[in-house]
Write a structure and sequence with these properties.
This protein is 44% helix and 14% strand. It has ten helices and eight strands. Strands 3-2-1-4-5-6-7-8 form an eight-stranded mixed β-sheet, with helices on both faces.
Length: 308
């Protein structure tokens, strides 16, 4: 992995990729570099305007890129189902579960889930399950889910998944990122039991300058916090281009192991992709299975293709 960068992304010609939250930040860079290497990329974004603008910008940066926008609101399970039903391809080589929200004021999704848990975990759980049949039909397919080192702050609370008893924005965010890793762990286990060669892996960007940091303070009207986040992005954070490297590595590098977790090499903060530390609760089989069962019940999406 030493020194691995975008120039090391293998040829992606003939491959189809879906990247959620691809209109900005890590998602946009991931989509752009996949397209640069020849993949057909679906920009799965909530906002039609921002998604279309991102597609136009990407084609300007990568002339001849095969990209398209498709609406996907991970906070609305009907939108997730519609997106999956309308995907027109008979193969899907790569699903990058990248979109997310961070440390927002309390709110709920269209379906009544706490927003961070609903968007960051349940929306992607449902999307992956609905796209699983086409992933299983595609040799060498991968599912890469973007987590965060902030998962280390808290494990999930199976008795209060939607933070109904008490809401603390950073704890809720951390739990949603733990859920991402537990999902990857359990998905990898189930794929192996099914005898599939689909690889489920996870990645995190370290501290990368994106729009994510300022969204929560802005929504809460906390202008000082918004300015502090902006200053951190300018002074401390690495670029979105650098932050996307672990995702691109997990998505494309040869030999990526199932249930691996890739992040920046320098203390998990910045640098070239490397194996990342993860909290022990993210590889707890029983916890992963309980979260999986709850996720199927809450979303109504069952992974029947893995039990057939």
């Amino acid at each position: 992995m030493a020194g691995w960068n975008t120039g090391d992304v293998p040829d992606q010609s003939g491959r189809v990729a879906v990247v959620t939250g691809a209109n900005s930040g890590i998602g946009y860079v991931t989509a752009r570099e996949l397209a640069r290497r020849g993949a057909r990329v679906v920009l799965a974004c909530r906002s039609e305007r921002r998604g279309a603008e991102a597609g136009d910008r990407l084609v300007t940066e990568v002339p001849g890129a095969e990209v398209e926008y498709a609406r996907l609101d991970l906070g609305d399970l009907a939108s997730v189902r519609e997106f999956a039903s309308r995907l027109p391809y008979d193969r899907l080589d790569l699903l990058v579960n990248n979109a997310g929200v961070m440390a927002l004021p309390y709110g709920t999704t269209t379906d009544g889930f706490e927003r961070q848990f609903g968007v960051n975990h349940l929306g992607h759980f449902a999307l992956t399950g609905l796209l699983l049949p086409v992933l299983l039909r595609t040799p060498g397919a991968r599912v890469v889910t973007v987590s965060s080192l902030m998962h280390a702050v808290s494990t999930v609370d199976l008795t209060d998944l939607n933070s109904e008893r008490r809401y603390r924005r950073w704890i809720a965010y951390s739990r949603s990122k733990t859920a991402n890793l537990l999902f990857t762990h359990e998905l990898a286990r189930r794929l192996a039991a099914h005898g599939s060669d689909v690889v489920a892996a996870a990645a995190h960007p370290g501290y990368a300058a994106t729009n994510l940091q300022a969204a929560g303070p802005r929504m809460a009207g906390r202008r000082i916090a918004e300015r502090v986040m902006g200053l951190g992005n300018r002074v401390v954070a690495q670029s979105a281009d650098a932050g996307a490297l672990p995702t691109l590595y997990a998505a494309t590098a040869p030999g990526v192991a199932p249930d691996s977790f890739t992040g920046p090499s320098l203390a998990g903060w910045r640098g070239a992709p490397a194996p990342s530390w993860r909290a022990p609760w993210t590889v707890d089989d029983a916890l992963g299975q309980h979260l999986w069962a709850a996720s199927e019940r809450l979303t109504g999406v069952a992974y029947d293709a893995l039990t057939a």
